[in-house]
Amino acid sequence: MFKAYSGVILPQLFGFLSILFLGIGLMLTGTNIMMTQKSYSFLKDISVGLAASVFLGLGSFFLLQWCGIYV
What we know:
Layout: H1 14-33, H2 42-67
């Protein structure tokens, strides 16, 4: 009669996705920190910061899901 809800992403992939997204976010953060004054551009700084923020947010979300804290 009732069917259990199944998410789009398999729960077995939560760990892999969290490590992947957190790694990408940390690399982008490091890139943003290591920018020199010669290569500094406001638009580049904002775009790299935005991308790093998105990846760190997704990585944190999947890490919480992986730990069993459902938000």
